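Reading group handout, session on sequence-to-structure problems. Before we discuss, look at one worked example. The prompt was deliberately terse, the way you'd type it at a terminal:

> structure Glycosyl transferase family 1

The input record follows.
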Amino acid sequence: VEMVLNNPSFKEVALNLKKSFQKSGGYKEAVDEIFIFVGQ
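And the output record:
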């Protein structure tokens, strides 16, 4: 946990994921898409 919290690259990746989720409709849309994919 400390390695992740102290490594700036993890924060950068997390922020990029956040932006990506926001652009694609937010986490609710992502969850819906995951359930659709799993149900196939």
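Points for discussion. First: Helices lie at 2-6, 8-23, 26-38. Second: Residues 2-38 form one domain.
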